[in-house]
Design a protein that fits this description.
476 residues, alpha+beta
Length: 476
């Protein structure tokens, strides 16, 4: 045998033919192949993408069964073929143009809405959800996660499960050499295919049913439209959850992935609660004081404020009252209250000046039309003429240090001007119009602006709008 010619080795790889040797490769990062195929249209299988879209509606299990076969042949769960996303993005763009044609005044705004459907709704949401699932699924449902202990309690955990170890810290693009880990690309594949079912419900079917969902003003018509709309959303998010469950249950190293279906139970309970709407309040028959009182309870007692209520009640944050000093006990005024329970917020009368809600929000000012205006910053009691302020309101101050501000909840009657943060409600028994508004501002008492304060200000605006919407929901 020629000593200069060696027999090919059994496990020789492509690196022996001019590529990078295995010793020089990074053993921790493997770039997804999909990045290399983004612009190679000839290598995209659009026929497969159409089959997947059809199967997601008819038999979604077949889609993930094909991914299982792909794993057996390619040794990866992720299919590096962007044809599904390209085709789906085209459908979303055309659907966005249809929505824009119905609701937008110009082609530019129509095109902007269509682009938002693709890059924000689909790609943005799918990337966020897939990233969250990538970092949580393995830790919750993996061999050493909490879900695996359920099998231990039942005595059903296999010997193979005992031999499995927790995967090392995951990189964004997966690990080479680790056979049991959740691939980020596969998480995105699941999110993208689950979003397709959401698209059929909320982007296509809802658009077709818009004349039915927005028809009529009577009680019966509104109830049927609400029931149909809520059922549509229940079906959409339930199907989204089910598709996600099918995707992750396909991974053999995850335990009890059926727990992913729990949100369907919660959504079903919420849907069932809509079948029994509460008694509608005759808003036109209520006084401004009672409207503001109910508005206050809804603002600080809704589900949106629940997390902040818990944090404030735990004592993790402490803030100094904005208005200090003893309140006058003559003139028939009520003493300020220190409220830590939603049930303590009255429904018929306003909170006294100086009252503190959950240790952070203080009543600093209030005014009722045709009644006395109280201002603790002035010397005692002053009276305002009705002509000077034609609406009723209550102010809540908050914050100290670098961030402070005020929320004003107000009630307007027969006022044609409308702000951004306002919703008009017509009274059933009167011809008048009642409008609820939220006005708010924030500032930095120390004067220095930082990036953190700027971000906090933006979050505060969004958070205030959510509180306002929740208050209206509970009020009406």
């Amino acid at each position: 045998m020629n000593p200069h010619i060696s027999v090919p080795r059994q496990h020789a790889g492509p690196a022996q033919f001019g590529g990078t040797s295995p010793q020089n490769r990074n053993p921790f990062i493997r770039m997804p192949q999909v990045f290399g195929r983004l612009f190679k249209v000839s290598q995209m299988d659009f026929e497969m993408a159409i089959w997947e879209m059809t199967s997601l509606v008819i038999a979604p299990k077949k889609v993930f069964k094909s991914m299982y076969y792909h794993k057996q042949t390619k040794n990866t769960w992720h299919r590096p073929d962007p044809s599904f996303s390209y085709l789906f993005s085209l459908f979303l763009y055309l659907t966005g143009l249809a929505w824009g044609f119905a609701y937008k005044p110009s082609f530019l705004s129509m095109n902007g809405l269509a682009i938002a459907f693709v890059f924000l709704h689909y790609l943005g949401v799918s990337l966020i959800i897939s990233t969250i699932m990538y970092f949580t699924v393995g830790r919750i449902f993996g061999p050493n996660g909490p879900a695996a202990t359920i099998s231990e309690w039942r005595g059903t955990r296999s010997s193979l499960g005992r031999m499995r170890r927790r995967a090392p810290a995951q990189g964004l693009f997966g690990l080479s050499g680790d056979k049991e880990h959740v691939e980020f690309g596969y998480c995105f594949d699941i999110s993208a295919r689950a979003f397709f079912t959401l698209y059929l419900h909320l982007y296509v079917l809802q658009f077709v049913l818009l004349p039915v969902l927005t028809r009529g003003t009577g009680t019966s018509s509104n109830f049927l439209a609400t029931l149909l709309g809520n059922t549509l959303y229940l079906s959409a998010f339930s199907y989204y959850t089910y598709i996600s469950f099918l995707g992750y249950s396909n991974l053999p190293f995850l335990y009890h992935t059926e727990l992913i279906l729990l949100p369907i139970v919660i959504m079903g309970i919420l849907w069932f609660s809509t079948l029994f709407p509460g008694k509608k309040l005759p808003l036109g028959q209520l006084s401004d004081e009672e409207l503001l009182a109910r508005f206050t309870r809804g603002f600080f007692g809704g589900i949106v404020f629940a997390a902040e209520r818990f944090i404030l009640a735990s004592g993790l944050t402490q803030q100094t009252p904005l208005v200090s000093g003893a309140q006058p006990t003559n003139y028939g005024l009520s003493l300020p209250k220190n409220i830590w329970n939603v049930a303590e917020i009255p429904l018929t009368t306003l909170l006294p000046l100086g009252s503190i809600l959950f240790g952070a929000f203080q009543v600093t000012h209030s005014h009722l039309v045709n009644k006395t205006k109280l201002n603790p910053t002035s010397e005692g009691l002053t009276k305002m003429k009705t002509a000077e302020e034609k609406f009723s309101y209550i102010d809540f101050g908050f914050g100290d240090g670098n961030f402070a501000g005020c929320h004003r909840l107000s009630v307007h009657r027969n006022d044609s001007s409308k702000g951004i943060e306002s919703v008009a409600k017509s009274a059933d028994d009167h011809d008048s119009m009642i409008e609820f508004r939220l006005s708010f501002f924030h500032c930095n008492p120390r004067g220095d602006e930082s990036r953190l304060i700027t971000m906090l200000s933006g979050f505060h605006q969004i958070y205030a709008r959510l509180l306002f919407t929740d208050a209206l929901r509970l009020l009406c």
